[in-house]
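Problem: given the chain below (374 residues), write out its structure.
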Amino acid sequence: MHDPSTRIPSPPISDDEQSIDASRCANGVDVEISSDTVVSLTARTTAETAGSPARFETSSAASSSSTTVSSPPSELPSATSSTTTVSSPPSEPSKPRSRQRVDFAKLQSIFAAESATDNTDPTPSPSLSSLWYILTTALLLAFHKEKLIADLWTYLAVNVARASGTNDDDHHHHHLLLTTARHIREASLKASTLVGFPRAINALLTLHRAIQSSHPALSTVLQRDSSLRSSPWLSPADKFNRGMALFQTIYDRHTPRVVSTMSSCSGGDLTHFAIQCIYGELLAENAIIGDLETGMLEFVCCLADGVAPQAKGHFFGSVNLGATRGQLRGAVLMAQELARQVRVPCAWDGGAAEEHDEGDEEDMDEWKFLQRVM
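Solution.
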């Protein structure tokens, strides 16, 4: 990567360029500036040519140009020539931009502490231990910080090594790394329909390069994975049915109203696309990330993106899928802390209030549903 602080030194100035040969001319002044370009200024004012335009001639090693500029006649005839050398000060090297860092340990601690308030079992379940970084993956994409996925992977890989107490050659350690990588990859893929497909592509490429660099053997295994969604055992009807089942679980008794609204505003296409493609093809696939994790992923993406109506729907959808009060509160607090660290506003707590008009208090009312867990 190019370091902007690195300057390419200019070639040394030759003796010919440093010496100035001042030539005399009748009633004229020659000024030569010694640097990369030599500028010769000749002003000739005589009685015969009084009022004639002064001529500025610029010459350089590559080209020469002549520009005529009108100026009043000089009243001070001169019989001498003077020469002035002006040296430009060396430019200051630009400072490299500091790399943005995220305290992932703090995010993990926040989510674990809040989630623990709902669970008397001191040993977290595997889904709970992975849920925080699945949601963090989605939040990074929603905050447009998908390049930080590489740092998330590095943090998790180090933690896996510490937790297993083994090296990369251990089978258990390898399995944990593989599971973690697949979780991040699947979370990026599922978040694509909520945060934007290009951001998901960038996140997946960033993760792939990070794993390839740190764990090349693991990268080889991941590249051999086959698609979960191109299975010949699932027909289009099967995918529609599983999509509709997840959709109905999320929206519960509101399902008919939501379907009717989507159909009426899109000629029916939005309903078909949402249930058949987004839910049936993508979100309802639960081999790696289950329905609860998927529902909360949808919620934090809408939360971070500042779309209150959709965030509200997926907030209650997460409840319908089994999310606890502590998990939802932990997700909101984790999103708030990550937003602070990457310096982006939080729409739900008035973090961008200075950018709002006076009438935007109604927008804050849209987020009142969060008070149920805060």
